[in-house]
Amino acid sequence: MPTRPPRPCRTCHTLGTWPTHGHCPTCNTARHRTRETRRGNRHQRGYTYEYEQARRQVLTPNSTCHWCGAPATVADHLTPLSAGGQNTPANLVPACTPCNSRRTTR
Ligand SMILES: [Zn+2]
Ligand SMILES: [Zn+2]
Predict the structure, then answer these.
(1) How far is it, in rounded angstroms, from Cα 38 to Cα 83?
(2) How far is the CA of 66 from the centre of ligand 1 (A)?
(3) N or C: which end of the chain has fewer CB within 10 A?
(4) How far is the CA of 65 from the centre of ligand 2 (A)?
(5) Are residues 56 and 21 in the same domain?
(6) Where are the beta strands (DSSP E) in 17-106?
(7) Which ligand lies nearest the alpha carbon of 76?
């Protein structure tokens, strides 16, 4: 079996025959780890079980947007989680998607 010429790892430049995307095993593992941290999961973004419970109480099929009166599709935080808001029914109001995203981006 012909041996492949060693190539430097694309991250740390260690010479070797790396089977994975031109990165040595160490760097390849590190890459996967950073990708997972960056994405985060639902829990890290604040969408916890408590949020789901509260959302179900606030967002009924007949809910209308708290801000504009359109049919509500999401539960909006009155006080954002980033500002210390809680995932409680008292802090959630039904909202339509445009109002929710407008408030989120602000
Ligand atoms: Zn490397
Ligand atoms: Zn609205």
Answers:
(1) 21
(2) 52
(3) N
(4) 5
(5) no
(6) 74-77, 92-95
(7) 2
In 3D, which of 83, 71, 72, 73 has the Cα closest to residue 46?
83
Identify any residues that bridge with 92 across adjacent strands, giving them in sequence order.
77
pLDDT digits (tens, 9 = 90+) for 7-51: 899 889 999 988 767 889 888 888 877 766 665 565 666 678 888
Instruction: Say which ligand is closest to the CA of 66.
Output: 2
Residue numbers of the domain that contains 21? 7-39
Q: Check: pTM over 0.70? Answer yes or no.
A: no
Which ligand has the shortest distance to the CA of 16? 1
Q: Are residues 53 and 81 in the same domain?
A: yes
Domain check: are 26 and 59 in the same one? Answer: no
Judge whether 19 lies within some domain. Answer: yes
CA of 31 to the centre of ligand 1 (A): 10
- Would residue 2 count as lying in a domain? no
